[in-house]
Amino acid sequence: MDIAAFQQAALALLGPKGFITAADDLAPHLTDWRKLYHGKACGLALPASTDEAAALIKLTAQYNVPVVPQGGNTGLSGAATPDQSGQTLIVNMKRMNSIRALDTANDTIIVEAGCILQQIQEAAAAADRFFPLSLTAEGSCQIGGNLATNAGGINVLKYGNARALTLGLEVVLPDGSVLDALTTLHKDNTGYDLKQLFIGAEGTLGLITAASLKLFPAFRARATAFAGLASLEAAIPVLARLRAATADQLVSFELLPRFGLDLAQKNFNLRQPLDIAPDWVLLIEAATPSADFDIALALERALGEALEADEIVDGLMAESDAQRQALWGLREGIVNAQPKEGASIKHDIAVPVASIPAFVTEASAALARDFPTARLLCFGHVGDGNLHFNLLQPKGGDPAAFLGLAPAINRLVHDHVAAHKGSISAEHGIGQLRRGELQRLKSPVALGVMRALKAALDPDGRFNPGKVL
Amino acid sequence: MDIAAFQQAALALLGPKGFITAADDLAPHLTDWRKLYHGKACGLALPASTDEAAALIKLTAQYNVPVVPQGGNTGLSGAATPDQSGQTLIVNMKRMNSIRALDTANDTIIVEAGCILQQIQEAAAAADRFFPLSLTAEGSCQIGGNLATNAGGINVLKYGNARALTLGLEVVLPDGSVLDALTTLHKDNTGYDLKQLFIGAEGTLGLITAASLKLFPAFRARATAFAGLASLEAAIPVLARLRAATADQLVSFELLPRFGLDLAQKNFNLRQPLDIAPDWVLLIEAATPSADFDIALALERALGEALEADEIVDGLMAESDAQRQALWGLREGIVNAQPKEGASIKHDIAVPVASIPAFVTEASAALARDFPTARLLCFGHVGDGNLHFNLLQPKGGDPAAFLGLAPAINRLVHDHVAAHKGSISAEHGIGQLRRGELQRLKSPVALGVMRALKAALDPDGRFNPGKVL
């Protein structure tokens, strides 16, 4: 590998705007936004077109240069951070940020990989359509990264993950050829569905350069509620009740713990909306594109029935947009209170919805036994079976000492997840963070098929080495 | 390959109920239900469990015996019919027909591959849930076949193809190992989503033995309408209007041509529901699980607006279940009239929804020019962009002579499909039927990736040889 010759060729191909080696410009791309991972690179490439991206990847094949695809660099598992070799090329997609087409008859949008998620949401809204992918980082994450990690977020319950929103992809393969699977068809059974390979592969099989995505009718009405649960178990019948009553238009069904609300109040002075303080509350949102459906009434009625059935102990409907914002602000407050409380050890897990109460009870008890001073903060997308099961350091304790417990705590939590046939990464991916645990917990047959796919598409192992597998 | 030794070993493994070589018992498995394809086999295996299936496939690997997976044998592309070599083993899944689990909290069902589709629909209904996959063959097709072909049907518009309904799969790989990806998780980003490989692969990459599938809230109300279109173009704004008005709970949006209704009337004496006879009509169905949503009112209002906007020229709502059945009977009458009219050359195509009018106009004109006596019968799932674009033989003409035109007519139709970036197989798959056209029209890069996947998973090419690729 002749790095200097590669750098020269890449500069000649992409020009000074498209190929960067200055240390200051590289620096922000060499670490993740939580600053947990740090790497080195032989350059940062910013292709401006699919042709440029393809020519660049051909060049990396020719010079045998490893490639780390990078989007908005907002991932939580270190998938977009290069290793320490210094021989890797980072390919950031931010210059490919055009919306190529928007079709309201077909309800599709074709976007380049570097489009910011919010830009796509806004383009859809401007056409009186809705693009459902929504997550905290939406102001800076890129759709290419969302697809490479099969991002989830707050609307998965109704609309599914990024995968479910994708009709087609354009991908530069490791040999530099372009796979044009950028179809906008809603149905196509002509052979293997190749786009599926690259969604969620975290850049290990190719570089996503564009995508065609589904749009949905824009909402005409939205209803938001807050409800105190009689017990964690009661979340399950409430979910089924509300899914049916809202015509399966429940968009969010978020579980929040009393401890989390207390933290939000303590750190950000956020008011508790209910008069009582149950152990668990639900933040619920339903939305409809039909002007003929009174979704607020439907939600309120169903919550009334849940109250009568002793599933919830109290509840309120947001009566204004400000009230709605305040309810969502509480959830955000829980997320943002975590760093204020010191170090935390986070788990992004999923179990079958029915197993949530048992998992939480069992894993909590085991943690209380083995790590009695760690503080459990468990919240999340309970409608998807997905919990953020986080441990905060003991009050006033030493952050570094607490983080030293991470391998043992991870192991304990993930073993309980595995016992319930759950997932150790519901939406954040594997990256570098969960590579060891994946090897430990995934079946050897599944790992074998993954390795066979990797060898078939990237025989030299140049794409995002050290990630996932 | 020692066929006699393999037969003896298979018989010893599966017993006389599980391994059959008698010609009479084999016969129905050697041809497709349309009797277009005919093959030979060295035996019919009927494994009764995943363990048996895995041991059997290990045996086929050991003796180098090719395998044709077969479900209800209702496919339309010849994917389940063996070749003429006589060395192939047919593995039919009908003895693996248990429903392993049904979870109303998680809204999932785990079924074995040999379950009849209708059996799954009924199990869901008995638990007050809805399983959306629905197609003409539902009384005899098996879910394993539905998944292997990524089946579509009449509810795709709201619920997606078989792929969209699948959370997990259990698959016996060509080497006989069992891939247990039978998760019921709604979210799981732990590595490549391996189930996607086998859905729609038509048995060329492995044998599906079980699946976990999504359930939905049962319907509380349904509304069905029939509307005469002002023009084919008008179907597009009507679709957008109704999707929004019904809260995106439009289940079916079927286009029917005047010629088709005439055929249904002529052959089955089915009454035309509208007083006028527009060139195109829509059969529309919306359904909701919410008792609080008057979906019939919403649909009727939206159709009223479509009438005022001159998008439709007449319409009616089904006022009873009998009327609803009669409307759907008309669609069925169109399908069933085809064989009564002699030979037909069928195309199962998709284009972007917006391109439907242009595609129909252009392809019709080209057909009228080159094949002026062929009678076009075009109907289908217009909400998915999916048309059954069929040519019926000239009245009183010679069926065989007409069928001789199939290659030229296929080519003409598929070229028009390709010009609109469409699909030559929207829901029926490739099988043997479209293998040549796939090679002609799919991009060399995509075909290359497909071949790489095939080589990675089935290096000896033993699984469903001669199909798809």
Give a verbal description of the structure.
- Two copies of one chain form a homodimer.
- In chain A, a hairpin with a 4-residue loop joins strand 18 and strand 19.
- With 469 residues, chain A is of the alpha+beta class.
- In chain A, helix 9 (258-268) packs across helix 11 and helix 12 runs antiparallel to helix 14 (406-419).
- The radius of gyration of chain A is 23 Å and the shape is globular.
- Chain A contains 16 helices and 19 strands.
- The model of chain A has no long low-confidence stretch (mean pLDDT 96).
- Chain A folds into four domains: 3-94, 2-Layer Sandwich (Uridine Diphospho-n-acetylenolpyruvylglucosamine Reductase, domain 2), CATH 3.30.43; 99-217, Uridine Diphospho-n-acetylenolpyruvylglucosamine Reductase, domain 3 (2-Layer Sandwich); 221-340, Alpha-Beta Plaits; 344-445, Alpha-Beta Plaits, CATH 3.30.70.2740.
- The interface between A and B is large, with 100 and 100 residues.
